[in-house]
Design brief:
Helix content is 69%, strand content 0%. The protein contains six helices and no strands. The radius of gyration is 21 Å and the shape is globular.
C-alpha cells in the first residue's frame, strides 16, 4: 500500500475545506438574470451597496441580489444611461446639469432604474 506524505495532504485538505465552506456560505439559486452586465459593473454595484450600509458582510447576498434584480428588469444600456444621468445630477454641474434633470428622456431613464430599485427592495430581503 502506498503511503501519502502528510506534508502534501494537509494543504490539500485545508483547500478542500475552504472550498466546501465557501460553497455552503454562497446562496443557492437557479435564477439567472435576463440581461448580462459586465462583471466590473456588478462588482461596483455590490461594493457601493455594501459601502452605503457600513460594509456589513451579511449584506453581501442582499447587494448581489440587488444587481441581479436590476439586470432582470432592464438591459445594461438602459442601466448605464440612468446611472450616468444620476451621477451627472449629483455632480454639481449647476445650469449645465439641467439637461440631466429636466429633459423627458433623462426623467424616463431614471424612472426605469427607480422601478428596478423598488423591486430590489421587495425581492432582496
Amino acid at each position: 500500500m502506498a503511503r501519502i506524505p502528510l506534508r502534501g495532504l494537509l494543504p490539500a485538505m485545508a483547500l478542500t475545506g475552504l472550498a466546501l465552506s465557501a460553497q455552503a456560505a454562497a446562496p443557492k439559486t437557479d435564477h439567472h438574470p435576463r440581461y448580462d452586465y459586465p462583471t466590473a459593473v456588478r462588482a461596483d454595484y455590490v461594493i457601493g451597496c455594501m459601502a452605503s450600509n457600513g460594509f456589513k458582510h451579511e449584506l453581501l447576498g442582499k447587494c448581489a441580489c440587488g444587481i441581479d434584480t436590476i439586470a432582470d428588469m432592464m438591459p445594461y444600456d438602459d442601466y448605464e444611461k440612468a446611472d450616468t444621468i444620476l451621477r451627472m445630477q449629483q455632480g454639481g454641474l449647476g445650469d449645465r446639469g439641467a439637461m440631466f434633470r429636466d429633459t423627458p428622456i433623462a426623467k424616463e431613464e431614471v424612472e426605469k432604474l427607480r422601478r428596478a430599485q423598488a423591486e430590489v427592495n421587495l425581492r432582496c430581503t
